[in-house]
Amino acid sequence: MSEEESSVYQRLNFLVDSLESGNQADFARRIGVRSGVVGDMFGKRRNKPSFDVLAKIATAYPQLRVEWLLSGEGEMLKSDGSPNTSSLHSAEAGTEPRIIAIAEGDNTAAPLYNIRTAANYRGDGLSQERPEPDGVISLPRWLLRNGNYAVFPVVGDSMEPTFYARDYVLCRFLPKPEWDDLREDQVAVIVSESRGLQLKRLTFRMGEGYVRCKSDNRQHPYYQLDLDDVLEVWRFEWRITSSAHNPTEGLSERVSTVEDTLEDMRALLEQVLDKKELLRLERPS
Asked: What is the pLDDT of residues 10-63, one digit of tens each?
């Protein structure tokens, strides 16, 4: 290991000790990589962090001086030493995931979130623990085109009959500049400070500063979110389900009821017409 690589390793060790109390798992979650990536950096292999990982570190710790991380020059933290949580809403922050972790390596895997964690997230910047993946699901390369992907559970009945509880949705991260390109009523997972993670049909009104969130189940009213409240958007791509709901369930019975009603109306109409004809015949000429 070169002197430069050793110095980077020592600085990363110092960073984790100082900002994450030495907890490498928390460090991995914060920067959005698998724990194995961090393990290879600090274990026997001591892999040199890639440029992508260094960029994630700089993004996850806005109080960190990049010059110190790369070269050891100056102090580790910026002068105020405190995170700038307003950067969550900056243009740079909207170009890659900050709240939802993504898988490292080639685009053949996506983190899988469990129901409890995803449902419980409530954001106020990065001061709360971000949702933690329950594992990683491997998918065909053709299914995961260029981009960052994650798999989310469906909770509750607000999106029935399109999505049911215990379904999973594979979603692609949508950078902020592309929010306005989302077609009206497009299904997506929206991450907001006020409501956490929600699967809804979205309609963005960028000029008016809000997004409308609508459920397929009409018992759930739609609501609007200010764009300043929105942290991330993940566009729906595929559904993963173990259920086999019959979309025509009860349809036969309803059709039979309609047919019976029409038959009754036809019979009634015939009676009315027959009565009118009888009255016409009985009427004196």
From this structure: 888 888 888 887 888 888 888 888 888 888 888 877 788 887 888 888 888 888
Residues in CB range of 7: below 8 A, 6 or more apart: 72
d(CA 32, CA 172): 16
Which of 96, 134, 135 lies closest to 115 in space, CA to CA?
A: 134
Burial class (CB in 10 A: 0-12, 13-18, 19+), 278: exposed
Pairing of strands 196-205, 186-192: antiparallel
pLDDT, tens digit, 9 for 90 and up, residues 196-225: 889 999 999 999 999 999 999 989 999 999
The phi and psi torsions of 212 (rounded to 5 degrees) equal -95, 130
Q: Return all residues near 173 (Cβ < 8 A) that are at least 6 apart.
A: 96, 97, 100, 102, 147, 148, 149, 150, 232, 233, 234, 235
pTM: 0.54
**186-192 and 230-240 as β-strands: parallel, antiparallel, unpaired?**
antiparallel
Strands (E), 174-251: 186-192, 196-205, 210-214, 223-226, 230-240
Domain limits, the chain: 4-83, 94-240, 247-285
- End-to-end, the C-alpha distance of the chain in Å comes to 118
CATH second-level architecture of 4-83? Orthogonal Bundle (1.10)
**Residue 117: which pLDDT band, with cuts at 50, 70 and 90?**
very low
